Each structure stands twice: as C-alpha cells, then as structure tokens.
C-alpha cells in the first residue's frame, strides 16, 4: 500500500484468501502460508500470519519446531491443547489467548481437546530483535469484557500496562510492533479506533478481520456484517473478510455492525 495522508481502506475478501480443506483441518490463510503463496499478501507491517483454523476432535498439529516468530492463538470455540518443549501443557478455551515467543527455538503441538471441534485464529508476528529467549504467556478475556468495547489482548512489552509475566491481567507481551484488539460488537452498535501517535508522524497500519462465527465458509447473506468508514470512505465486510487500513496518526476508523447478530472482530495495529 502507498503512504496516504488520509485514511486508505483496501478490501481482503474471504473468498480470495488462501484456503485448504484437509478433512481434519479446514483453514483460511489471510497471508502467504504453507502451500499458499501470493506476493501481494505476504504480511502487513510486523504481522506475518493470520490463519482461521477449524480442527476436528482427535486431531491437530503434531510436534513441530518454530524459531524467530511470536505465535499466538485466539480461541473462538472448542478447546485447544497446547504442549511444548518448555514443559508447558495447557488446555485453552473460548476467550483464552496463548502466546509463544519462539526466539532461539521451541517445539510444540496444538491439538483439539474434547469431543467438539476447535475454532481458533493462529497469528504470527516478527519480533524487532532476533535470538530472543523463548517465553510462554496466557491471558483470558471474557465475552463481557469484549462486548461493545475494545480489549487489548496483545501489545508490545514496553507499552503501558503490559506485564512480562506468564499469566495475569492485561495484554500478553510481544517483542514486535503489533498490538491486537478484540471486540464483540452488538447488532446496530459501533466502535471507533484512532490510529495512535508514535512520536514520529509515520503512517500507521491496521488490519481488521471479522471472525467466521456463524460457521465454516457459510457464504450466506445472514450473520455479521461490519461497515468500516472514515474520512468519506466506506467498506462493508462479511464474516471471514478483512481489510487493510493505512493512514497518518490520529485518523479515526469507525466500525459498525450493520448485519444480524453479534460480530466478533479482531484488529491489529502494527508499525
């Protein structure tokens, strides 16, 4: 994207994302991932991966290595069992956010726990420095906390209110320039997001994603629809859709639920 003086909004329709149905795994890739490659969608700022995964019971991602990425899981429904080489074993449920700062290298597995499929977002960000000591964090954010307001679920370690602790209140800490927000926006309600000042006047980057809470690849006209607007520009998103937004600091983006039922939305503000 260019460096606009005003707000710029560019659609990323779900129908154009990378997609794979492996039977046990149904997944959409917002950015290039695995066998899906599109040079026009290979990341955005520090954000490198945004996958929306559904995994059947009794299956999952077996033990595999990672390094030099910060990997976080945002659980939408079901239960996800995490195990890693740092001896962390945890079952994550709706509202849980789990962050692994892989650094110099870890091995982990993520599998469905229980009798129901798990639906979660898998997100990767690139840290500002390499060769970090691996760390693990979990946070929980209730539906009540997220209803009709933004909750900051991940933020840079130096940001105000961020605690570098395995568990606790507030956002999980990252060594990248990504801040992740989440909301459950009621039908007819709206929220604003103001692109933050960074002291340097640089163009800010935002990515918005509407979670597919009504079902996998539903494709119907029902369910959540979210209108993005700012500085005379508008774009409507359905579940699974996303949008790239760029603009100078202090520009304001409005998100309005214009569809049926509650909309679950995540927003990434990245340098």
Automatic annotation (TrEMBL):
One MF term in the entry's GO annotations:
metal ion binding
Q: For this protein, what does the record note about how its cofactor is bound? A: Binds 1 Fe cation per subunit.
Record Gene3D superfamilies: Jelly Rolls
Which residue ranges are recorded for the region named Disordered? 1-20
Cofactor(s) recorded in Swiss-Prot or TrEMBL: Fe cation
Per UniProt, residues of the Pirin N-terminal domain are 16-124
Q: Which terms are listed as keywords in the entry?
A: Iron, Metal-binding
Please list the residues that bind Fe cation: 64, 66, 108, 110
Similarity annotation: Belongs to the pirin family.
Name-wise, this protein is Pirin-domain-containing protein
Q: Which organism is it from?
A: Dacryopinax primogenitus (strain DJM 731)
At the highest ranks, the source species' classification is: Eukaryota, Fungi, Dikarya, Basidiomycota, Agaricomycotina
């Amino acid at each position: 994207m260019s460096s606009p003086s005003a707000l710029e909004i560019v659609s990323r329709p779900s129908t154009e994302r990378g997609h794979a149905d492996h039977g046990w795994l149904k997944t959409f890739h917002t950015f290039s991932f695995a066998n899906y490659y599109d040079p026009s969608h290979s990341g955005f700022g520090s954000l490198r991966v945004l996958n929306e995964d559904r995994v059947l019971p009794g299956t999952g991602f077996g033990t595999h290595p990672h390094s030099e990425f910060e990997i976080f899981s945002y659980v939408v429904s079901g239960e996800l069992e995490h195990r890693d080489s740092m001896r962390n074993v945890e079952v994550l449920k709706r509202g849980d956010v789990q962050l692994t700062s892989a650094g110099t290298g870890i091995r982990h597995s993520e599998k469905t726990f229980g009798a129901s499929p798990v639906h979660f977002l898998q997100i990767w960000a690139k840290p500002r420095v390499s060769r970090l000591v691996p760390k693990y964090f979990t946070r929980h954010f209730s539906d009540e906390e997220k209803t009709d307001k933004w909750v900051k679920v991940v933020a840079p370690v130096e940001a105000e209110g961020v605690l570098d602790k395995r568990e606790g209140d507030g956002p999980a800490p990252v060594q990248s320039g990504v801040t992740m927000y989440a909301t459950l926006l009621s039908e007819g309600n709206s929220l604003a997001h103001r692109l933050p000042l960074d002291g340097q006047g640089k163009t800010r980057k935002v990515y918005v994603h509407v979670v597919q809470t009504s079902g996998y690849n539903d494709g119907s006209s029902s369910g959540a629809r979210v209108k993005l607007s700012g500085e005379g520009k508008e774009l409507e998103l359905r579940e699974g859709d996303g949008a790239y937004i760029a603009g100078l600091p202090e520009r304001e983006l409005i998100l309005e639920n214009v569809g049926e039922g509650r909309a679950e939305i995540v927003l990434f503000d990245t340098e």
